[in-house]
Amino acid sequence: MNPFIDIRNDFPILKQQVYGKPLVYLDNAATTQKPTTVIDALCNYYRQDNANVHRGVHALSERATVNYERTRDDLVGLIHANNRREIVFVRGATEAINLVAQSWGNANVAAGDEIIISAMEHHSNIVPWQWLCERTGATLKIAPMNARGELLMDQFDAMLHARTRLVAVVHQSNALGTINPVAEIIQKSHAVGAKVLLDGAQALAHMAVDVQALDVDFYVTSAHKMYGPTGVGMLYAKEALLEAMPPYQGGGDMIRTVSFERSEYNDLPYKFEAGTPNIAGVIGFGAALRYLQSLGMDAIAKHEQSLLAYATDKAESTGYIRLIGTAKNKASVLSFAVNGVHPHDLGTILDRDGVAIRAGHHCAMPVMKFFGVPATARASFAVYNTKDDVDTLFVAIEQAYAMFS
Fold first, then answer.
1. Which amino acids are annotated catalytic?
2. What is the pLDDT of residue 16?
3. How many CB atoms lie within 10 A of CB 30?
């Protein structure tokens, strides 16, 4: 029996029709829909507790602060951080990566050093490291992948040496679904003295993650890919690293004292949280985390793997669909091309049948270049998707193919 059969009722947006057809939402790698508990948490903050956090002594501020800081504790529990000082709230995974590149990178990377990223990275895990290399004279190295979308670990191994300062790789690829061998990457990188950053924006909603067991130095994610609000996310970093890193931005809340002569910075994690934060977003993020925990990460992974396997079998049986990314270890993402149909045309046609997919380069243009395609169509799965959704997707794809062929 499917334990998630009634979950769709938790997501009000899924009850609508698009062009007279029931909505089939398969663009979850771009952003997930929000359960009622998250929507209520946002509304309740603005209706009842709207006040700034950490600074007020009145009841509204105290309630807002308690709910805001509860999310930090929820994240500690979800990823098994050592303590709450290691959890920094940011606008999303992109800002978290930029924070590390600006703060840790400027202080620890110099001319002659090397940074390694993979060939399957999202633009957010490419551009900040390009900038850091331009500023410092360091060199950016690209760990290659094979035609299945899997890292070539022997070539990655050959890149590692004493001048490697940082390895920044995606935990799960947004464009391919590949789950990288991150435990092995971390162990090998640490063996040469390099730090490791994992982009977990795609992974953390789909699998259990234990940052202490992995021994990862930095881990980043975005709430909106985890059934939470947009505009908020998390940087996890080992406490010793955060203590040594200079502040990323200056302003309120990241200081203890300020004079015109000098400023003294606040304790962790507030040293990196300048200004009024996205309070409602963080509170909504907490509601999303508790929702995920109530379902169980192992159960979520099992459900989504069954959908991916079902969709993969259907795609392979058509004879006119080329799968892009066929790694042995992957999750939740089916990227593909339909013979004779441009992905943008396919996405538009499917939309008229109420099926929402993503068509484009998925902020991973080097991946598209590697596979020799201008774009792919991408169906990505979440807890509320069903095999009926997959069936509807492939009926619509078959109609589109027949139209163009």
1. 363
2. 97
3. 16
